[in-house]
Amino acid sequence: MDHQNIQMLRIGEVCRRTGLSKSQIFRLVDGCGFPAPIKLSARATAWIEAEVEGWLRDRITATRQAV
Fold first, then answer.
1. How far apart are CA 15 and CA 23, in angstroms?
2. What residues does 47 pair with on adjacent strands?
3. What is the spatial distance between Cα 3 and Cα 7, in angstroms, rounded to a whole number?
4. What are phi and psi of 55, to 5 degrees?
5. What is the band of 1 on the pLDDT scale with cuts at 50, 70, 90?
6. Where are the alpha helices (DSSP H) in 1-67?
7. Most exposed of 25, 30, 48, 49 (fewest Cβ within 10 Å)?
8. Which of 61, 59, 13, 19 has the alpha carbon at shortest distance from 37?
């Protein structure tokens, strides 16, 4: 991964991009189905954009193959 161009997404943006609620995202993280957030500080977390986008691509591929 190119560490110079890492983009981080806060929970609101992750919800907007995926169409999922906060609680659903955290359930998927706990169930090993969604990338885990990165701890930025004591009270802040964020997701790596490339990991979220990869998860979305995987979901699209899985859905299209199932049809």
1. 10
2. 9
3. 9
4. -60, -45
5. low
6. 11-18, 22-30, 49-66
7. 30
8. 13
Q: In the structure encoding, which two tokens stand for residue 45, read together?
A: 């977390």
- Taking only Cα atoms into account, the Rg of the chain, rounded to an integer number of angstroms, comes to 13
pTM of the full predicted structure? 0.87
Render the burial of 1-34: b for 16+ CB within 10 Å, e for the rest: eeeeeeeebeeeebeeebeeeeeebeeeeeeeeb
d(CA 56, CA 63): 11
| Amino acid at position 56, single letter | L
Contact (CB, 8 A) for 48 and 35: yes
Mean pLDDT score of the chain: 93
Digit-coded pLDDT (tens) for 21-67: 999 999 999 998 999 999 999 999 999 999 999 999 999 999 998 76
